[in-house]
Each structure stands twice: as structure tokens, then as C-alpha cells.
Amino acid sequence: MVRGTFQLMKSANKSTILNKVRQYGPISRAEIAKETGITPPTVSSIIKELMVEKLVVESVLGESQGGRKPTMLLLNKNDHYVIGVDAGSDSIKVCVSDLVGTILVRSELPIYSHTTIENFLAVMIQAIELGIKDMGANGNKVIGIGIAMHGVVEVATGTSLYSANSGLRNVQIKEVLEKKFDRQVIVENNSRAMALGEYWFGDYGALESFAVINIGRGVGSGIIEDGKLRYGAQDIAGEIGHMTISLDGEKCSCGNQGCFETFVTGNAIVRRAKKKIPDAPDDLSGEKVYEYALKGQKAYQSVLEETGVLIGIGIVNLIHSVNPEKIVLGGGVMKSHEFLMPSILATIQQRALTEKARKNTIINLSRIGDDVTVLGAAALVLKRLF
Ligand SMILES: [Zn+2]
């Protein structure tokens, strides 16, 4: 058994109680019993276990309801840590976080193009080692490692099956890292991890269905229903970047033509701007398109507005296939939101099928921002712990 696994295996009651303490602490044993319907002796004995595992601590005394003041319980957020890894195609970002998503340490190392599996894993291991080292003596309190990997991931085996951006296939991330670090490793597709990060740390309350769309170098989405990520039968649910938008469109990295992501990634925006704007500089980048738009250059503003229409079309397809209550947009391209959002929203108003869907689908920007994927990776471990 991998070290730390005992803390990740919990009975339903234990998990319920730990989550009460996490969400509502300081809270008394009596309040937990009342709110969960678990009997007071069971609550007491489970709290005892959680204190031995150093997940829960007693703190200040609460208000007395007549009689002795109850002892309040808090999550012991600083005795266990988790590592989140955002494994992109051009860099590996690592964070070490406490149990409530506070990032204590970060590291980042570049991935060079045409990398090999060995090289990719070596860089990942090195970035994780840097993070653990920076935690000093607390490095041995890391209980698990969550990996948000770009491309298609087989979650059960923790294998990266295919990544169009880095060209790697069948990378056995979980197997290699568990051997190396002797801790549980959970591997997930980066857009799904991002959805989990947004859901776990975005403070949205209870939502029945929730989708996060990540628009950057590629496009992916994570769909959460009843608090659970959706995978589909072959683990590719949410791969909306490869929905066909145009039958005879540009060739995509996946080999098909006219995929959604060939229209809306940073590179796609640059390609379109160069076609439309005769004096566009050769070294134009997505960031520069945004910069020129901000400076008031109408031609660049209209390229972004048009991108908003295209993003809106992709969102309408997602609404029509999944119909989520709320859709959160994140990723590098969404940094240009002031130019994108109006035409995204207008497109949904024009195209979504029913009035209810047009009115009631909530579209938001990510609340977490740049850290959402790395924190989502950390949440992969937290989700097991709680
Ligand atoms: Zn494609």
C-alpha cells in the first residue's frame, strides 16, 4: 500500500463528519450529530479517530446552550499537505497546498518541444521534488499528488493516452510517480481538474450541473453533475475542443477538420488576425492581439469580437448536449474577456434553443484565475481525503 493511503480510505460517516468540520467548523460534536443524524456516540468515536489522524483539532469553547460550554472542532489544515501538478505541453507547474487550497510553495519547469516520455516524466519528477524540498521538514506531510495532464487520460491506470500538443502517447504517470514518491498519485485530464478546482474552491454553493470550459492552447471542458465529474464510457466526455464546427475547416492537431479549437485558441486568433489585418506584425501573439485591442485598435477588437461569436457557438453546442446550470470560462484566451464576453452572450441569446436556456444558463469567468488547474490537481487528492 502506498504511504498515506489509509487517510484516503474513509467510511461514509467519517467522510460526512470530516466535511461538516471542513465546511462549518468551528462546530461542536452535538451540532454535528444533530445536523448529520449520526448518533452522538458514533460522532464522538469518529472525531477521536480523526484527531488521532491529525485531521481535526479541538479549539475554543463554544456558546453554552445551558450547562457546560461545548468544545469546538476545527479542521487541522496544517498537518497534511497535497501536491497539485499542472502538466501542460510547454511547462510543468507544481504547487503544495494545505487542506483548504492555500498554496504554500510553487515550482515551475519548462518542457521543450519534441520531448520524449522519459524526459517529460523526469521534468515532472524534478518539479515535484523542488516543491517538496521547499516545504522543508513539512515535506513528509504531503499525503498525495494530483496531476492535471493535458490530452486524453485513462484515470483508472493514471496513464496519459494521447496528447496532441506534445505528441506523447501512453505515458504511465501514476505508476512511475507512485514508485518514485511512495504516495498516492491521481491523474486526470487538465480540463476536468480545472472544473474540479473551480467547483471545489470557487464557492458556488450547491449546483446540480456545472461545466468549465478551458480556452487556451487547446480547448477542453470539465462537466460536473451532482458533485461528480463526468467521464463518459471511454473517458472522453467534455472533449469539446474537437467538436466539428465546420466540415471543410482547417486541419486540427487531432487529424480532423474544422474542430472547435481550430477557431478559438490563442494561435487560431493570431492566424485570423494575420489574415484580416494586412499590417499585422509577423511576431503577432495572442497577448499582442489583446494589447492592441486594449489600445483601441478597432481591427484587433473586431477579431476578438468575432472570436466571441465562435466561442458562443461552441457554448451553445455544449448547452444543447449537456444543458448545465452554470458554465464557467477560463484559460489564457479568456483574459481578453472584455472583448469576448459581449459577443459570447449575444450568440447564446441568438442561438440557444429555448427561452429558459437563453435566460437561465449562467455564464461566468473563472473565479480562481491562473491557479485553477494546479489547485484542481490538488483537489483530486482532497476529494479522496474528504
Ligand atoms: Zn480536433
How would you concisely characterize the structure shown here?
This protein is α/β, with parallel strands linked by helices and 386 residues long.
What secondary-structure arrangement, pairings included, does this model have?
Layout: H1 12-24, E1 27-28, H2 29-36, H3 40-52, E2 56-61, E3 71-75, E4 81-87, E5 91-97, E6 103-110, H4 117-134, E7 142-149, E8 152-154, E9 159-162, E10 169-172, H5 173-181, E11 184-189, H6 190-201, E12 209-215, E13 219-225, E14 228-229, H7 261-264, H8 266-276, H9 286-294, H10 298-322, E15 326-330, H11 337-351, H12 355-360, E16 362-365, H13 372-385
Parallel strand pairs: 4-7, 7-11, 12-15, 15-16
Antiparallel strand pairs: 1-3, 2-3, 4-5, 5-6, 8-9, 9-10, 12-13, 13-14
The chain binds zinc ion.
